[in-house]
């Protein structure tokens, strides 16, 4: 087979979009020809040390939907997307050799698994990285902090006061048609990567599909069609229904939309429609997302360690029966059980639920927090390494909580957030 010489590769990781994509924009500006690349490594769908699949069916389905949308969007730009289903090191070797790749443009990552992936590229290939997953640029944050503070409030106040958010990058103009390669790489199906087809649960609060267009549609609906963002602060702790919170997190997690895009639309809404405590609170949550990314960047492997980021030694259990009861919703607490069953059946759980079940597992049942974090990694549609592990550290009392001994009472939480027991009845009465 005759080789087609391609100048550069855009390796899509958690930036599955064409608008506000710095790697894509830079590649187009600094290359003669480019192709896109995504690899679905079998290791990312295999069991980990605690026995959970690294990625379960819910996120796998959402990911494939997102990739399908990305391929369609890139096709409009005359950019081919190569999607492989093989061990990443093998896929990289084949693609680089076949297309004589010299430069790879990618979003910069810093956690263990992601750094390992980067090591598979040969030394004669230039990796051109950029940070494109933040609200506030790392270069700007470094001017404020030599070390990220333990508490969120200090971080938030200084960012709000001193920093600004960069403008979003537009969708690039289409390249010449001859940029496309003649070979089509089909996107693997759900069954190809080891899952049976399934229908979204009828009670699921997250029935949306993945991809940039669907993400933007959800944002537009939540902001401009319904105005639900104006009551976000009041409804964000709800448990039933698709509009009790923004539900932006799955698209943010795999980068189908950028955090700056959401911020841009929020500012537009505040300018044209309404600005109140609720619209601010959504911005507040976007800063929280940044905060956990910076915490993980600073503490590196401690972010995943048994004793947490500050070395708080605790006695953790790994009792399998206790853990199984928690996973399967068979504890003594109905509110905890309902949330765990919802997660198992749908791949989603409210933020209120996540706080309660993680706090209960670590502070009541004394189970090693890393097991719970890994179970969430497996099950959640919106899994994000920084937010997931950061929140688990927080709720286990070995992270950034200013009151590390904080312990929720599930009965009181249920009375406050599910006073009529509608949520518990939804998931416990099947």
Structural summary, described in words:
The protein is mainly α. The protein folds into 3 domains: 132 residues, HUPs (Rossmann fold), CATH 3.40.50; 88 residues, Serine Threonine Protein Phosphatase 5, Tetratricopeptide repeat (Alpha Horseshoe), CATH 1.25.40.80; 124 residues, DNA Cyclobutane Dipyrimidine Photolyase, subunit A, domain 3 (Orthogonal Bundle). Helices cover 46% and strands 6% of the residues. It is built from 18 helices and 5 strands. Strands 3-2-1-4-5 form a 5-stranded parallel β-sheet, with helices on one face. Strand 2, helix 2 and strand 3 form a beta-alpha-beta unit. Helix 15 runs antiparallel to helix 16. The longest helix has 23 residues. The chain is globular and about 65 Å long. The model has no long low-confidence stretch (mean pLDDT 95).
Which CATH class of the largest domain is shown? Answer: Alpha Beta
Poorly predicted parts: none
Fraction of residues in helix: 40-55%
CATH topology of the largest domain: Rossmann fold
Report the CATH architecture of the largest domain.
3-Layer(aba) Sandwich
Q: Helical segment tally? A: 18
Beta-strand segment tally: 5
User: What is the CA-based Rg, rounded?
Assistant: 22 Å
List the topology elements.
Elements: E1 8-11, H1 22-29, E2 34-39, H2 57-76, E3 81-84, H3 88-99, E4 103-107, H4 112-118, E5 126-130, H5 138-144, H6 152-162, H7 212-225, H8 232-235, H9 249-253, H10 259-272, H11 277-299, H12 320-327, H13 334-346, H14 351-364, H15 369-379, H16 385-396, H17 410-417, H18 422-428
Parallel strand pairs: 1-2, 1-4, 2-3, 4-5
């Amino acid at each position: 087979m005759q080789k087609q010489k391609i100048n550069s590769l855009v390796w899509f990781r958690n930036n599955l979009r064409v608008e506000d994509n710095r790697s894509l924009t830079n590649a187009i500006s600094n290359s003669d020809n480019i192709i896109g690349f995504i690899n679905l490594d079998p290791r990312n769908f295999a069991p980990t040390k605690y026995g959970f699949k690294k990625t379960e069916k819910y996120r796998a389905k959402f990911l494939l939907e997102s990739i399908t949308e990305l391929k369609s969007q890139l096709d409009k730009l005359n950019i081919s997307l190569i999607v492989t289903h093989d061990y990443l090191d093998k896929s990289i070797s084949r693609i680089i050799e076949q297309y004589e790749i010299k430069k790879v443009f990618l979003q910069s990552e810093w956690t263990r698994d992601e750094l390992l992936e980067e090591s598979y590229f040969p030394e004669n290939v230039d990796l051109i990285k950029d940070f494109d997953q933040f609200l506030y640029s790392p270069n700007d944050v470094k001017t404020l902090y030599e070390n990220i503070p333990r508490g969120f409030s200090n971080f938030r106040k200084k960012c709000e006061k001193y920093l600004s958010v960069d403008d979003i990058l537009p969708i690039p103009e289409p390249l010449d048609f001859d940029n496309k390669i003649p070979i089509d790489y089909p996107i693997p199906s759900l069954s190809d990567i080891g899952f049976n087809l399934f229908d979204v649960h009828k009670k699921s609060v997250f029935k949306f599909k993945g991809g940039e267009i669907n993400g933007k549609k959800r944002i537009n609906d939540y902001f401009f069609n319904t105005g639900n963002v104006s009551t976000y602060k009041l409804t964000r702790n709800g448990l039933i229904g698709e509009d009790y919170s923004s539900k932006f997190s799955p698209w943010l997690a795999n980068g189908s939309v950028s955090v700056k895009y959401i911020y841009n639309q929020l500012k537009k809404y505040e300018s044209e429609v309404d600005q109140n405590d609720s619209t601010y609170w959504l911005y507040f949550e976007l800063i929280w997302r940044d905060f956990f990314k910076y915490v993980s960047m600073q503490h590196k492997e401690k972010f995943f360690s048994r004793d947490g980021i500050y070395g708080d030694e605790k006695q953790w259990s790994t009792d399998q029966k206790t853990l199984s009861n928690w996973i399967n919703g068979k504890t003594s607490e109905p509110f905890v059980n309902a949330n765990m069953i919802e997660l198992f059946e749908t791949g989603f759980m409210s933020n209120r639920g996540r706080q309660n079940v993680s706090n209960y597992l670590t502070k009541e049942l004394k189970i090693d927090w890393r097991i719970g974090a890994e179970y969430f990694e497996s099950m959640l549609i919106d899994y994000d390494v920084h937010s997931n592990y950061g929140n688990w550290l927080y709720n286990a009392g070995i992270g950034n909580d200013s009151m590390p001994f904080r312990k929720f009472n599930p009965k009181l939480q249920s009375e406050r957030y599910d006073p009529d027991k509608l949520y518990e009845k939804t998931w416990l009465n099947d």
